[in-house]
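Researcher: I'd like a structural prediction for the single chain below. Treat it as a standalone chain; there are no partners to consider.
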Amino acid sequence: MIAAGAYVPVIHAARPDRPDEQDTVDTAVDIAAALARLGHKTEVIDIGSDFAPLRALAARRPMVVFNMAEAVAGDATRADQPVRLMQELGLRYTGCSAAALTAALSKTASKRLMAASDIPTPLWWEAGEDVPAPTRVIVKSDSEHASLGIDAGSVVMGAQAHAEITAREVRFGGRFFAEAYVAGREFNVALLQDAQGVRMLPIPEILFDTLPDDQPKIVDYAAKWDADSHAYHNTPRRFGLEVQDPALAADLARHALACWHAFGLTGYARVDFRVTQSGQPLVLEVNTNPCLARDAGFVATALQAGIEYDALIAHVLDSACLSHSKAA
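Model: Treating it as a single chain, here is the predicted structure.
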């Protein structure tokens, strides 16, 4: 446990012109408030796109830097850069290493790593590749981890995949790809590092029961960020899987732990799953440093485990010290 009085700044590189980016700024403020309640000296620092404030911060030798740099000026492909610089500067920081962040930045690269590690994941096709008929697919950004670029129109038949990939690349920028759409249940597995290894938090299921029949059963951008949308209020979480179906819960935990080791994760992470109608878990993606907003899924699972918000922030700090002491 870090003694009270330590200097623990919170950094971000958000450009608050989108709801998901503004959420990063708001979360940084909430984390700083929690750190202050825990007795630490703290402040929120926007490190910008050139990271000059981060270089200046190194001279002040913080105990730990609380890393909330989920993207740099809206570019999720740069999320590993602040961590890489902190490693060069000898700063301790919360969450995953630069190598782990890099491994998870690209969803298609992540899928190749999962395939090489015998971790099940839905089939996928990149731009220009033929999708077998009559496959139904969901077209996704290769780098965004906040559902940017995903809406009801993202789910199409394979014959439309190439046109939809092209259209979304033009509209949103970056690279998109097509993933086989799994018409099944959706679960998130949150993992938290502690002195004993990795702790699995209670597993929530995302429910789609009240979505319209003609709407894909997905957590799209509106479901996450548009408080005026139907999906935002009709994709709730439900806990209790460990009691209702312990075999499935054990399968999800086993695959999540395999992702933890394959990606070299540290601190905290979340693994998202779809489960086929035959009961096969498939990993959708690995989320390094998942959102710690008070209404975020990771915080909800921690609360379900009896970990209040301030205690969770303290735990993340302790896991950072643990990770860096092991790496030293």
